[in-house]
Amino acid sequence: MDVLLVEDDEPVAESLRRGLLRYGFGVEWVTTGAAALAVTAPYDLVLLDLGLPDTDGLDVCRELRGRGDVPIIVISARSDETDRVVGLEIGADDYVSKPFGVREVIARIRAVMRRARPQGEPQGPQRYGSRLTLDRKSARVRLDGAEVALTPKEYDLLAFLTEEPGALMSREQIMEAVWDANWFGPTKTLDVHVAALRRKLAGAVAIEAVRGVGFRLVPAGDPA
Fold first, then answer.
1. In tens digits, what is the pLDDT along the chain, a chain of 224 residues?
2. N or C: more exposed end of the chain, with fewer CB within 10 A?
3. How many CB atoms lie within 10 A of CB 4?
């Protein structure tokens, strides 16, 4: 999924860009309203700051909405209710006030995309290999049809690794996504949780360790 990020504050934009890439999104970053309106490459969602250097973000939102129905999430330091109401009335699908966490933005994106998804598209549990299913809506995991009891962090770790099966995730990426965006402590806890998942999901998925780098999850029967 490709995101158009319209944000002139470089630290904010860089943090968002890294977070989106970590969760598997493609990102095109522009810093002005004119640049946003000039983008011709296709994208699936817009993250739009209101405080742009060349124009009011509300005008950009109005113009983008006039061009089509691509989902738009406004991100802004403006917390005034009037701005929120106007943004939603001219076509924004959601509004996130600064400061915010990357995971909050990811959750908002997923919620907006679920609403935008065609009614006929399946939204139920996702299958990984022939034995494992994960239902993100209910946060339940089943192995051969039977529910598996996972701790909250075990579930979060599995949910993160299954977002992109087969992809190598570094220890830093996993710790930031599953434990805390500003985690600086030891990563031994990650090994403990990986071992627990391997034990509970034995034979259904392989969680492969790449020494000095991180882990990748491969459903049983899939090529590594």
1. 899 999 999 999 998 998 888 777 899 999 999 999 999 999 999 999 988 999 999 899 999 999 998 999 998 876 666 666 777 888 888 888 888 877 778 878 877 876 776 544 445 788 888 899 999 888 899 999 999 999 989 998 999 898 878 888 888 778 877 876 555 556 688 999 999 999 999 999 999 999 888 999 998 765 44
2. C
3. 23
Q: Counting beta carbons within 10 angstroms of the beta carbon of residue 20, is it exposed (0 to 12), middle (13 to 18) or buried (19 or more)?
A: buried
pTM: 0.56
Q: Is 137 exposed, middle or buried (0-12, 13-18, 19+ CB in 10 A)?
A: exposed
Residue-wise DSSP of the chain: -EEEEE---HHHHHHHHHHHHHTT-EEEEESSHHHHHH--S--SEEEEESB-SSSBHHHHHHHHHHH----EEEEES---HHHHHHHHHTT-SEEEESS--HHHHHHHHHHHHHHHS-TTS--SPEEETTTEEEETTTTEEEETTEEP---HHHHHHHHHHTTSTT--EEHHHHIIIII-TT--S-SHHHHHHHHHHHHHTTTTEEEEEETTTEEEEEETTS--
Instruction: Classify the phi-psi angles of 144: left when phi > 0, otherwise alpha if psi is within -120 to 50, otherwise beta.
Output: left
Residue 52 near residue 82, CB atoms below 8 Å: no
